[in-house]
Amino acid sequence: MATNLKQLAFIFCTIVVATISMPVTQCRIIQLNDANLIEETCKQTPHHDLCIQYLKADPRSTGADVSGLALIMVDVIKAKANNALDKIHQLLQGSPKPGQKEPLSSCADRYKAIVEADVPKAIAALKKGDPKFAEDGANDAALEATTCESSFSGNHLSQMTTMLCMM
């Protein structure tokens, strides 16, 4: 899950950079064809197929500009973080294996920070037209997910990643 969230955050950051670097006239030309805009935007990301998958699955992508696509990716990050947080709480309510309770609690705090701080920060920044600040929020989310994952050692990491990815 942390890897998936990191990929999504990186896709988001790339879209934000595209928002900054794409001339307004180019945005208007590409906007004539929604699939083209999604394709051109996702081409600039390291996870092209994942980017396309999430953007095309959201009906808001029809008619969206690059900033709108970035907002969609923020919503995807939020949904994935909420799913991870729910799964972590389920694991904590069960009988965590020895040595897992503390890292799980830490991960819960980190994913809560993504949902309550990083995502709202990115949304507000995009709506205000400040893509750099939005990028900071996505980078923070990726850092939180990475820190969660690294809090597990040995087999716990692969077990945690497997459990979260099964969501």
Describe the 3D structure.
Helix 1 runs antiparallel to helix 5 and helix 3 packs antiparallel against helix 4. The radius of gyration is 17 Å and the shape is elongated. It contains eight helices and no strands. With 167 residues, it is an all-alpha fold. About 10% of the residues have low confidence.
Q: What gross morphology would you assign? A: elongated
User: In whole angstroms, how far apart are the ends?
Assistant: 9 Å
SS element count, helices: 8
Largest sheet: none
The whole-angstrom Rg is: 17 Å
Mean pLDDT equals: 76
Structural class: mainly alpha
What amount of the residues lies in strands?
A: under 5%
Low-confidence stretches: 17-32
Question: Short description, anyone?
Answer:
By secondary structure, the chain is an all-alpha fold. Helices cover 80% and strands 0% of the residues.
List the helices and strands and how they pair.
Elements: H1 2-21, H2 24-31, H3 34-43, H4 48-57, H5 66-93, H6 101-127, H7 131-150, H8 155-165
Helix pairs in contact: 1-5, 1-7, 3-4, 5-6, 6-7
List the keywords.
elongated; 167 residues; mainly alpha
